[in-house]
């Protein structure tokens, strides 16, 4: 009786395992593999601050102009920017990169925008880019947009960035806090232990020379295809 019970338990365990793990598919983890908090500072050109401006209106509706944001929740304005990125909320801190891209105001009735931009990072800690896109409902305290890719130390990154307007001075300056959570990072398993180590593409090249396979955090537990 005891043997039959043991066999039944083993069969049940195998059935449960098959229902949760599909052969050949990568398992998704529900916690971020890397987090970052950065700030970027946007100074909009207003016809008088050309020397300090980091953003400019390049498209405006018929009732607007390119030196001041239009009425009706700025609907129709298109702004391109090249903003400094800092590790804290001080505009005068040493920049670690640039936020480069555009935002456009896309609704008359609600103060909202659409963003498409890259963080171009060049510091002692990180080198590479992170690319972002998504709707920005500006009246919400926090807003989520997608991390849609990356290069360098963020090769093929995927994740979510939470935006929060950290400061706002009329229609000339605003500061955004960006909490980045990456859920798709490139890792390699250490050859001597069951643990994961973040590597940059440069390090990955060295590891490839040593015939240590590079694989995603979603690694399915098998080296068969490497």
Question: What can you see in these coordinates?
Answer:
By secondary structure, the chain is mainly beta. It has 2 domains: 34-184, Allene oxide cyclase-like (AOC barrel-like); 186-226, no CATH class. The chain contains 3 helices and 12 strands. It has an 8-stranded antiparallel β-barrel.
How do you describe this structure in short?
The chain is mainly beta. Helices cover 14% and strands 43% of the residues.
Q: Give the CA-based shape.
A: globular
Helix content range: 10-25%
The CATH topology of the largest domain corresponds to AOC barrel-like
Question: CATH homologous superfamily of the largest domain, by name?
Answer: Allene oxide cyclase-like
Please give the CATH class of the largest domain: Mainly Beta
What fraction of residues sit in β-strands?
Answer: 35-45%
Name the strands of the widest sheet in spatial order.
Answer: 1-3-4-5-6-7-8-9
Point out poorly predicted stretches. 12-27, 188-226
Tell me the span between the first and last alpha carbons.
Answer: 45 Å
- Averaged pLDDT, please? 76
Largest sheet geometry: 8 strands, antiparallel, barrel
Number of helices: 3
In total, the number of strands is 12
**Which value, in Å, is the CA radius of gyration?**
24 Å
| Structural domain count | 2
Annotated CATH architecture of the largest domain? Beta Barrel
What structural class do the secondary elements suggest?
Answer: mainly beta
Give me the strand/helix succession: HEEHEEEEEEEEEHE
Subcellular location: Secreted, Extracellular space, Apoplast
Signal peptide: 1-19
Main location: secreted
Subunit structure: Homodimer.
